Amino acid sequence: MTPWRRLGRRAALVALLLLLHEAGARLLGAQDPISLGLSLARGGGALPLGALLGAMALLLALRLGLYLAAPPWLALGLLKALWPPRSGPR
Amino acid sequence: MSSAARDLARRLAPPLCAAAVLALAPGWLAGRRGADWFDGDRRTQDALARGVIAAQAARPAGVVYHSGEARFDGQSAVAIYQMTILGLGQILLQHPELRGEYLPAMRVAAERLASPATLRYAASKYGQHGVVRMDPGEGHAYLGYINMGLGMLRIFDPQTPLARLNDQLSDELARRLDASPQGLIETYPGETWPPDVAAVAGSLGLHARASGRDHGALLERWARRFERCALDGRSGMLVQRVAAGSCRPVDAPRGSGTAIAAYFVAFAHPALARRLYEGVTRARRDVLFFAGVREYPEGVSGRGDLNAGPILFGLSVGASGFALGAARVHGDRQGFTGLYRSAHLLGAPTSVGAGTSFAVGGALGNALLLAMLTGRTP
Asked: Which of A29, A41, A80 is the closest to B352 by Cβ?
């Protein structure tokens, strides 16, 4: 696979994660996670409460990934595309 | 360039590139709106305000959360209504043309804030809510939060029917504050929390602005006693709780209480607020353009509480969030921007309807952030 193609795949994956993140944030933002969590803690059972906490943790993990990991990952892909590693015998 | 030099450059380029991007990109991505918030950009402020107003309109009166703990349910509702009024009022100080859109929501929040049904816990401790009656010897410092909301409303709505209650509460609280040798009054029987007293003082500052009454001399006397009794000299932080009727600490100096007090006191006594903010600044930690505030001073550990919220690596969500308001009222652009980046990263702001909402904040987090991100004194 060419470096440009690899960079394109990375960019597509980041774009997909961005979309997933935006959908999750809007879904959570339309609720009140504190209120929902309290009512689930009182009578919703452990599973729905765990699902809510899991969704919040996933959203946070996505944000950390998109803000902290994705930029250098894309930048390295771009560097490799612009300045490909030397191949063949020296 | 020689072949060896090219090889070295080729080997060093990836880690240097990754380090440079990691050092610059996350801070830039998370802080893009920080300058807009600090500068009071109307569109940025109005989007969150609209989100908070819409959420309030969709809720019935009374408490917002139903945890089964009357104290948490009542106090969180008081905080939501108070911060909604403060946030909207602070925006109006800068953008008075929005008065027609914000004032109805401020009035609704104030009615709910002043209703004894919102904080039934107070009546369960004192026998009656302080808005109904305050007997001699009773502190009722929780009224500072309510009275701050009423004072801010009154600045923009001088004819509000709640003006009389604002006068009455201010008179009663001022008398109690001036009579205390420590500059402290109880929130509930046997409980004295200096950050609550900071709200009482802040409410007198707002009352002075709204009514034209002068509390200056009283607040000057109060500030000296309060600082001597409740400010920890070593850390510069405010002690979170003291034994009733004394200056004996029963909790550590805490970042969350110091930061919210630095914001509240700015409405009443700017010099003391500045000293409190210096304590916040000393407790702030900056990492890669992001910032957070320690909940406990270095060398002190604790488990925090609801005011602190989650604590990660010693930095608490509560202290860091309240510090945003303190940073803005004290004109600390750098501190505000670093804290904003953290709030943006962890709060997940997103579009909801016509407004903006921090996805993980809920009603409480969004009302608090509205007040903190727009922090400004009249």
From this structure: A29
Query: Of B26, B64, B364, which has the smallest distance from its Cβ to A67's Cβ?
Result: B26
Tokens 């994660």 identify what position? A17
Say what the alpha-carbon torsion angle B231, B232, B238, B244 is, to the nearest 10 degrees. Answer: -70
Kindly report, residue by residue over B82-128, the tens digit of the pLDDT.
999 999 999 999 999 999 999 999 999 999 999 999 999 999 999 99
pTM: 0.93
Mean per-residue pLDDT, B262-286: 98
Q: Which of chain B's residues have a Cβ under 8 Å away from the Cβ of A49?
A: none
**Given the structure tokens 């193609």, which residue do they identify?**
A5
Q: CA B377 to CA B93: how far, in whole Å? A: 8
Burial A17-54 (b: 16+ CB within 10 A, else e): eeeebeebbeebbeebbbbbbbbbeeebeeeebeebee
The residues pairing with B297 across neighbouring beta strands, listed in sequence order, are none
Q: State how far residue A88 is from chain B, nearest Cα, in angstroms.
A: 15
What does the buried/exposed string (b/e) look like for B282-307 if buried means 16 or more CB atoms within 10 Å of the residue's CB? bbbeeeebbbbbbbbbeebeeebbeb
A73 CA: distance to closest CA in chain B (Å) = 7
